[in-house]
Design brief:
The protein is of the alpha+beta class. 22% of the residues lie in helices and 29% in strands. The chain is elongated and about 125 Å long.
Length: 397
Amino acid sequence: MVRHFRNKNTFGFSLVELLVALVFTLILMAGLASVFKASITSFYMSGETTSSARRNRLGIDLLGEDINTAGMYLTDMALLPFTVDNMPPFWINPNVPILNAGTNDPASADELYFYMDEPLPFEGILTASPVSQTAADMVLSGVSVVSSPPTYEVDCLNADYARMVKDGHYLIFKDFWEALYITRVISVNGKNVTVETGMTPNVGVTGSGSSGLPARVNHLNNRTRVVFVNPAQMVKYKIEMLKLDPDPEKPNGVPCLVRYQAPYPYEGVFDEAANSRTRQMITENVSGFKVYLSVNGGTTWAGEGLSATGFGAGWNGSTGIRSQIDTQLSVVGRPGFKDTRADDHWFRRIPVLVRVDVTTRTATMRAEFSAGHDELKYRDLFQSFIFVPRHFGLPMN
């Protein structure tokens, strides 16, 4: 009889050994899954926080560059531009309710308005002008100063720049800083533009602008630098709910900081609907926008803690922002400027600190952003920017 012997090394794991190994493997996998989930969560959280900080900084940088043009009066260096009482050249409408805001959206925010003359982003060179262009020359030669509208040809150095020049812009000569109103763009030939100048339409009402007379001095062709200006522009910043994508979780849209620009509204009403084409989204997911002013070096801030809103109460009221500025001025003692409400252009004569507080939020809500990690929340990022706009505290010549 043949006997078969088994080598003890050929035996496999016992059931108990397999179960023990499986238990340890499951424990290890659970630990690895927990670490992986924490890593993924941390990655997304840090990414959203960084994205929020980037949006916040971008919005502040763009606003800072833009607000540095507030109070830039280019068309007349001697006279202040004409403005109406209920639309001053710089003002803040605090605590304005945000239309269509949802439960998790900001309920109110400030609106910022400012006036500027907007220079086009290039300089040209005068290439052709009237042979006898000054009023004095024309009088001495016996030619009527209104015999024909003066025309000028300018080399804009680029065809795209030449096409930017429009009727109603100003042509400013840099050698003598003289501004002429463009009544008509006669032709655009490549990078050269030919314009006709004349009287500003509302010069008889406002008292400022071009009289329509010829230039006061002879400007040298092929030597004189010129700037084109889009005059009397009003800029408005606000938070607005925009539907950027069909997200069912955000039926009201996303709160965005937007910018509008329009010709100065002499009727005293900034019509957003009529100027909707100028709307620019500065940054999205903005949960707070506040603007404060200080004329005492930042010791106190006008508008801080204010609950009123509107031009009558929030800006011009007895406890509004302008009243708080007057209080600051009465303490620091600036003679002649104890009541800024008597002068809509007060900021051009007084150095003013402007503080802009912008709060952005993450694009999505996460439980990790709540205190107990049991409720979906946004994470907010707050940044504050303090500066003195270039044209504030700069009196007219």
